[in-house]
Amino acid sequence: MLDILALLQVSAAIIGIGPFVFHWMRMKKNSKKSMAIPPEPSSWPSLTIVLPVWNEEMVIKNKLEDLAIQDYPKDKMEILVIDSDSSDSTMEIFHKWKSDSSHGVKVKSIQMPSRLGKSAAINRILVEPLNTDAIVITDADALLAEGALRRIGRWLSNPNIGAVCGSQQILGDSDSNHFIDEKTYRSFYHDIRIGESTVFSSPIFEGSLAAYRNSLVLGHQIDATYNADDSQLAVLINRLGSRSIMDPELCFFEYLPSTKEAAAIRRLRRANGLVHLFSRNRPSKFSTINRKFSKIMQIEAWIHLVMPFLVLFSFSIMLLHISISTSLVIMKESLQTTHALLLLIDSLFLISLLFGNKLRLSQILRSFFISQWALLVANIEMYRGIDFHIWEQDIESRESLVED
Ligand code: GDP
Ligand code: MN
């Protein structure tokens, strides 16, 4: 009995987590080879900076000013706000700012008749006849690092690059547990995204700042029944035979939701989007387009759709193994060396998991288990038909942003 439990526990863990660890190690190695960003082009690509908003009165003015001070030729950029029927003063603030000509930027807006979600708003942009080279989609609660648009312009001067996204620099209370969890998770996440970009493309994108080539995406539509508009567009770019990359030096700043609960809600929503993405874009579809990308899609689909269930299975069997072997020890019955060893490893593992955020190893274990939990819940939600194409935004992170 104990033998079977040990075998099940260990094999489920290896089969489930193995491909992830292997992928992470390979991508970490790849992420060290730097991708050369093209030099400044003699003629900069023209950009439509798309700002999807719903009830953003707290931050919209800040956001518009942050864009207007970006160092980019003013005749090569325009701002396009797409509002989904905000019920607050977002659009009044916008129109007032627009009429103030001192910023020197061309500004326009599109009004959606009702709130259908961010993905639906992006679909509206994709049917707009734009005569620019690329759209740069950026969230109202994200601020761009100096020189961000110029980096985007440089990447797009390489015709093989269809999309580029930024990398998040999180702001917030760096001592809080959920900040440490998020930071640890992010360090792995970044290694993988950047490694995948070096190999070919990252299917997972950062929608807070991402640029897509218009000649590729205009006229297409994404699935508006779920979120992850950013990653949906990145996958579309690859379906069209081009590359989608994350640039580690293209930075944007965003506050982490200040409470543990708000951070968990956002994590679940993002996991839900990715689970939908990988179950609706079968990796096999990409095998004829690009082998490297299809392999990346295969591993990511495994990580998002299968690993969380195997981790849960292995974890449950582990608890069973611990309780049975501990009771044998208590009843002073003999325990085989292998089982005693497994009991020791499992107990150390449980202790370090519960230990909190003091040791690096327990930080990694914690953030891994938190992400597995989010993916597990997201999968179950998906099977129950729950999606997040509309959500409540986090007010506190916006308050922090304007206070700064
Ligand atoms: P998070 O960063 O994933 O927590 O998502 P946010 O709540 O910050 O939203 C990202 C961006 O999408 C913000 O600029 C929102 O205003 C915008 N947004 C959210 N829902 C809608 C919507 O229904 N329509 C439009 N046009 N924008 C939306
Ligand atoms: Mn946000």
What does this structure look like?
The chain has a domain of 271 residues: Spore Coat Polysaccharide Biosynthesis Protein SpsA, Chain A (Alpha-Beta Complex), CATH 3.90.550. The protein is built from 13 helices and 8 strands. Strands 3-2-1-4-7-6-8-5 form an 8-stranded mixed sheet, sandwiched between helices. α3 links the parallel β2 and β3. Bound molecules: guanosine-5'-diphosphate and manganese (II) ion. The site of guanosine-5'-diphosphate has 18 residues, from β1, β2 and α4.
| Rough outline | elongated
In round numbers, the mean pLDDT is: 95
CA-based gyration radius = 23 Å
Strand order of the largest sheet: 3-2-1-4-7-6-8-5
What name does CATH use for the topology of the domain at 34-304?
Spore Coat Polysaccharide Biosynthesis Protein SpsA, Chain A
From N to C, what is the helix and strand string?
HEHEHEHEEHEHEHHEHHHHH
Portion of residues within helices: 40-55%
CATH superfamily descriptor of the domain at 34-304: Spore Coat Polysaccharide Biosynthesis Protein SpsA, Chain A
Q: Which architecture of the domain at 34-304 does the CATH hierarchy give at level 2?
A: Alpha-Beta Complex
Annotation, overall tally of beta strands:
8
CATH class of the domain at 34-304: Alpha Beta
Uncertain ranges: none
Q: What's the number of helices?
A: 13
Spatial gap, N to C terminus? 60 Å
Ligand set: guanosine-5'-diphosphate, manganese (II) ion
Question: What summary fits the major beta sheet?
Answer: 8 strands, mixed
Share in β-strands: 5-15%
> What structural category characterises the helix and strand content?
alpha/beta
